[in-house]
Structure prediction request, 251 residues.
Amino acid sequence: MDTTPFPEPESPEQERFWLYSHVEIVALLTRLASGKVPMTLYWGRDGECAVSEVLDVDGARNELTLDLPAVESLRAGLLASPEIVCVAFIDHIKVQFQVRSPRSAGGPRATVQVAVPERVLRLQRREYFRVRTPETLSASCLVPYSGDRGQYESIRVIDLSVGGMAMLAYPRHFDPSESTVIDRCFLDLPGVGTVTVRMRVAHVEMGADGATRRCGCEFVDLSPQARMMLQRYVQRIDVEQRQRPGRRHAA
Prediction:
């Protein structure tokens, strides 16, 4: 699962993961409230954010009550924002939705009321859209292998998604082992740019020739900029693969 709390960018590939049923949305939000699930709220152009939770869901009145930040400046900024993006995790599923026109509610606890969202995104890591990198736009990753992290080896990227990637490694210097977290890897995305990523080795498989390793990695703590660049690259490859039937597949 992708554990980063940053909002997912809009993408045509995510349409099948949006929930539109009012009854199901209310039921999901009620689960967030009953479980007191922490939720991150994002608003404003500068990426202001605060931790909150769903306090109450009134499906009949179409109202959602959220906890307000304790810091007064954050509280004022949130209430002045025309829209808020909410992100939470429940049962290994990333839940994201947008609400508008927040208003302060009365009572002993500082709260904000909004309308129940019209749609909610439910996304698991395995559902991230994945593309196989073609020769024309082949991605590669510079991975550190020395003790002082000062030396790098270029590894071929086989497939890629916003959640992670698979690489084909020749363990001359870089010999990956499962569960290892690798910092400051430089992922080169042709036509998009270079992204600095931190990744965790999820699994390693021996190649048929006995010399190569197929290494599956998941990204850790991706920055919003890195996420957008990865999404741009994936969408670019998808456009190319749409013209080649049989080569497109999802994670």
